[in-house]
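Posting this for the archive.
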Amino acid sequence: MLLPTLIKRPFTLPLLLAVAVLAAPVAAHAVAAAPVQDVSDVLHGVTVKDPYRYFENVKDPKVQSWLKEQGDSARKELDRIGLRSLLEQRIAEISAATGDDIRGITRMAGDHIYYLKRGRGEKQFKLMTRDGLQGAERVLVDPELEAKRTGVPHAINYFVPAWDGKHVAYGVSAGGSEDASLYILDVETGKTVGEPIPRVHEALIGWLPDSKSLTYNQLKPLKPGDAESETYLDSKVMWLKVGDTAAQAKPVFGPTVTTDLGLARLDVGAIIFNPGSRWMIARTTDTTLPEGYLFVADVADLNKPTVAWKKISSFDDKITDVDLKGNDLYLLTHAGAPRNRVLKLDLRHPELKLAREVAAAPADAVLEKFSLTRDALIAEIREGTSIVLRRYTAGDTKGQSIPAPFKGAASLQNDPAHAYSDVLYTLNGWTELPRTLLLKGKVSSDPGLRVNPPMPSLPEVEVVDVKVPSYDGAMVPMTLLYKKGLKRDGSNPTLLDGYAAYGFSQTAYFSPASMAWIERGGVLAYANVRGSGVYGDDWYRAGFKATKPNTWKDGVACAKYLIAEGYATPKTLGVMGTSAGGIFVGRTVTTAPELFAAAIFNVGIMDTVRAEDSANGITNISEFGSAKNPQEFPALLEMSTYHNIKDNTAYPAVMLVHGMNDPRVDVWHSAKTAARLQAATSSGKPIMLRLDMQAGHGIGSTATQRYALSADIYSFLLWQMGKVKQADN
């Protein structure tokens, strides 16, 4: 799945004002043009040209050489921007002032608490534990130790504690690759049990109720000559007893294991358990869309030669999340409810038609997620870029709103055993530091889990929600952030940011870099164009496959709005998209290049026609379509930035960002697009390929890597908007 990567965009004010000089943007130093090697395919009667197909063989020495030259050139040009080093310093400074970063809090029965923590000034997240909210903190896993030993960044990808708190399963990968191996840690001794298990990339881990064994999803090893698109096919759910070797694990679910269930090769399975339930739930997705199969069986059946799985639902039933409690299975679905609802099914009679609604979305809001407590259901309710909490008790399908200390986005923390009546959640805001709170009834208090530093000295920020009329009259929600008193004279450096895939929406969060950009007089515009889920499934489907053009047409409308309202001009407007947001940014730029001074294509999917031949690309057919399908091919060709670049066109300055170890969007997407833009543009503005040899999709990047990337992005934009100069060679 092409998950959105959160880039902390950080800047002190005196440092920035000293370099606030208007300057004409200058083209970057020229690099060697990539040779054209014409390849043409005839797809469903259409001739599709691909002059840089050879870049898909990233291991080719000539391709490696070109990539290195591009990366080195970009590094030299970025380092010459006068503001760049000050930006990186300011990023680290503001980030340090926000305190420790704590994520993934999991609260187990017996008051055992686990979480990931990146301490102030540290590079990477560590796995921590404590007994009780005020208990002493203890480090369980520090990936920096391995990074120092090998010289390669390591990251914890996931962790799942056992119900009894004696063990925790966790995954670690290197160099941003996300190619995680599974480890099992003895919490008391701090030592690993058994050997690492390779190719366990996701947190599809299920501890059995007795905590003596667990299940996990493992990818198959590729054989010599296997296509990369085989990577995620035919995965297996394995059952392992703690202390056994990986060779002793037993396959219990998957397309090649449970062959009578009608699973497709891309159905990736997980088994869900709960200590208070006799049942286990097998769930599949294609790793991209959350809908899939659900099956139920008795946990005791794992000891039998075959498990008697009973089917509950399939993709067409539109179930996107589940949770298990006793005899009841709770189902989040958009079937008959575009803004979602929660159903409850008694597993003693596991027929979906018998499920009953227990939670409905309020009018004009979206029920995005839910969590079960000991005696209630708590839901996350989206209201634009904000998320509020709502409590549903037995018989109350409408629920009761829960007040929050400030307006922002609430995110429920994990209570997988449903052991508590109170709830831990984190509240984050555009202008508020994240706080982790304990909710009892309707009262939120600070449980002392994180230290709350004072807010750094920053300007007063306006947060304005607007609705922009698109080409067809659809009203597109956009949130603007800027310094109070901003003059709308078109001179403000302005960045339009969009994602718009999988139904993911732009959401309020505090970014030190964003504050620094605003501190400098900049404007940030977060657009929830069609393809996001800000208004539920209907809005998402309006930017999906054949309707995907709405995504970038909405983007163009938002850009025109920012110009018409005096926030920016085409000389001071930039646009950015990340990952699947590459379609948003790439096609917005290729549709209306005259609107922008600069653009950031950040680990973007750029060639949607060829994407499905890659390892992760095949998993995204359900989101974007297949070029092999004559009905879906036209939309794929239209949404492909690479194929819509036109010769002799005055494109804005573009910086393409990528990590060489990216497992989600292969680096050749950016390489092919950079080469094509460099050959096609007539503007004289730079087309740069910024590469990180020890990064991937951004998920495993260290704090240092993130700071450097943010400094590069913002200094590039300011340079091309004429706000700063480059130093002479």
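The mean pLDDT is 94. The longest helix spans residues 61-79.
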